[in-house]
Structures are given as C-alpha cells and as structure tokens.
Amino acid sequence: MHECIPDSDYQQLHHFISESNWDAFAVMRTVAQHTQQSLQAVDGEQGLLLDESGWEKAGTKSVGVARQYIGQVGKVCNAQVGMFAALVRGDKVGLVNARLYLPAEWTDKPARCKAIGVPAQDQSYKSKPQLAVAMLSELAPVVSYDWVGGDSIYGNSPDLRTYLLAQQQRFVLDVGSELTVFLTDPSPAVPPAKAIRGRQPTRAQTHQPRYSLSTVLAGLGATGWQMLVYRRGSQGKLVREAQLLPVWLWKPDWKTSPQALSLLISREVDGSAVKYSLVYEPSGQTDLLISLQRQMQRYWVERAFQDSKEQLGLHQNQTRCWAGWYHHVALTLMALHFMLETRLESQDDIPLLSCSDIKLMLARTLLNKLHQSEGIWQAIEQRHRQRFNNAYRYIYQT
Question: How many angstroms from the chain centroid is the CA of residue 334?
C-alpha cells in the first residue's frame, strides 16, 4: 500500500491498521446502516445470512491461527476463521458484521491472548453459534430483516434456534443429515415414581421414536415432491424438487419444551444435491416456495466472500494482533459496500457491472506511484533497505 499510494507513510499506515484505537465495531455498524439503505432500492424481502469464511495463514503468532477445517480449501490447515453476517435482497448482498473465531488452544492460554491484544471479555471460549448470537444482538437495533439463514453450523445449534424462537424471528437454517427429529409431538413428561423410597425421577422422557433426516428422506419415496422454480439464472430457470414436513426437536437434557418446526427437504430433479433446512414461521403458515427461495439465497453470501477475497483482499491481512484483524475486516466491509452502492447506482446503464470492473476503473483513474519510473525505483530501494535491516537484526539477535 505504501509503495502505491502517493504521499503515504509506511509507519502511519501500519499504525492506522494495527495500533490505533478507532472502533472497528462502530465502522461495521455504520456499514450495516448504509447497506440497509442501499438495499431498499432492490425488490423483494430481506434476509440476514450467517456464514463463516476462513483463509490459510502460516505461523503461530497471528491471532486465532490454528489447525482447523477451511471449507474453501476443503481440508484442515493452519488458518484464521471469521464469522460473518450479511444482508441479502434479491441477488444483491453486503457483509455487515464479523467476529474472529478463537479456537480453544487460544482461549485456554490467557497470556497468549493478552500478548496479542485480545480484550479480557473475549478471552473466554465462544462457539461459532455463540458468536452468531452476539452479532444478531448487535445488529438488532441497527438493521431489520424478514428472516435469518445459515448453514448447518447454526442450524444444528439448539441454543441459536432457541434464541431465534424467543425473538419470534423467522428462519431457514440448514442442518446435516445426521440430525434426529420426531415426526410426532414427543410430549415429554417426568415419569411417575415406581416406589415410595429411593431417588424420584426428575428428567422428562418420551416414548416417541426419533429419526435421522436421511431416514426421513428414505421413507418419503417418490411421492409428495413439488417441482418449483426458485430463481432465474443467467441461463434460464433454476428448478428443484421440495417438500415440507412438520417435525419436533427435543432432547432429555433440554430445559425447554420441544421445538415445533418444519423440515424443508429439497433436491435436484435427478435426486442429487439434497439439502435439509429447519424452517420457523411465527404465524404457522409456512409456504413451500418462499422457504425454498430462502434456502437457496445462501448462494449470494458466497459471492460476497468471493468478491471480498479476490477483489478487496479480505484474506490478505498481514497484521498479527486482535485490533489489526478487526480493523482490516471493517475496512474490507466498507469497501464492499462501496462496490454494492456503485453497482446499484449504475444498474440501469451498466447492468453487468462487477466488482472487478469497478476495481479496474479505479486502478486506471487513481494516482499510483508505481505508474512512474521514479516511484518504481523508490519502491525497490525501500524493499532492499528493509531486507538489509531484517538481515542485520537477525544477525545481531543471534
């Protein structure tokens, strides 16, 4: 950045990202407000999508780096993982909040967290669904949305579902095929005592059987499926088969009553790519087509991650500390909103305008020191000086 930006100073840029005390969360709240305003120009309902995104990162010093699974690369590797919230309406989306996931190997070592600048209130372990609840709570007074969506990390979480149910908040949350449900109300109750003496029963029980979702799917056979057009793509209508079933979720260790929800099962017309989602509608009138459209909206948050990484450098953060991660992410979210707003303002004249198009125009119009021979030589000289200083420091320390 210092090599490219005219009148910039390396130390000032480093301080701004890594050490200055500006509030990254305040910036993200402002981004959320502006994103909501921008999306008002788009037809349709608005959803809030929860998802995670990770990226490989070498070493052990950077905050949150640990061996963990990264979906983008499809394997366990040394990486950082961030939890994100996105507002989506139609095919337009903006990232509006984020949390860094700290694995237990970090939170189990308070000294390690303190050394990297993790605030005391964030040094205790928080699961990904718990971080999602924190984002939902922070966004509640800032933005509004019709429903909440997320992948199986969130759908499989009883605590997150309980939070949304308490808020009477519609949701369509993906779940894994291994999840077990009741197909009739389990009506749990504490069994009567079998004897006068001895320990009395205190835990509720049920005699209703539970079924895995894969077993439920196998029992459906070929009946009851509806073929629905859930979206129009660039090459025509996008179609899936789907059906809704009433289900109940409950476990003996729960202190709450069973969760009465709907199970949405959808698949490609050839029976492949099966998706399961738990659906909640406060009115009780769950619509199959609307539920399917919400289930398939998660496609757009992946496009937001793609633009944020490929065009805006979300995964290219070179800082190690807690504040640096949040500062970098907050600025990336702000830049992504700029892209969204620019595309919306230009959609009548340039309907296919992309983030890469906007980035290309900026690269051609903004001043860049590397466009001049003098700037190139200055950059080379600065790199050589830095290499020399690093080598000298290494020799001196060893």
Answer: 16
CA angle 362/36/18 to nearest 5° reads: 55
Q: Is residue 43 within 8 Å of residue 20, measured between CB atoms?
A: no
Please give the Cα distance from 286 to 307 (Å, whole number): 33
Residue 94 contacts residue 35 (beta carbons within 8 Å): yes
Which of the following CATH numbers is that of domain 23-186+207-353: 3.90.350.10, 3.30.450.20, 3.40.50.620, 3.40.50.10540?
3.90.350.10
pLDDT recorded at residue 398 = 67
Q: How far apart are CA 13 and CA 18, in angstroms?
A: 9
The DSSP code for 295 is H
Q: Are 286 and 244 in contact (CB under 8 A)?
A: yes
Number of other CB atoms surrounding residue 121 within 10 Å: 6
Q: Which residues of the chain have pLDDT under 50?
A: none
For the stretch 20-45, what's the b/e string if a residue is b when 16 or more beta carbons lie within 10 angstroms of its beta carbon? eeeebeebbbbbbebbbebbeebeee
pLDDT of residue 273: 95
pLDDT of res. 314: 94
pLDDT score for 212: 96
Supply 184's token pair: 């009739």
CB 135 within 8 A of CB 83: yes
Measuring CA to CA, which residue among 46, 34, 36 is closest to residue 297?
46
Please, what is the angle between helix 322-345 and helix 298-310, to 10°? 110
The answer to whether residues 245 and 216 touch, using CB atoms and an 8 Å cutoff, is yes
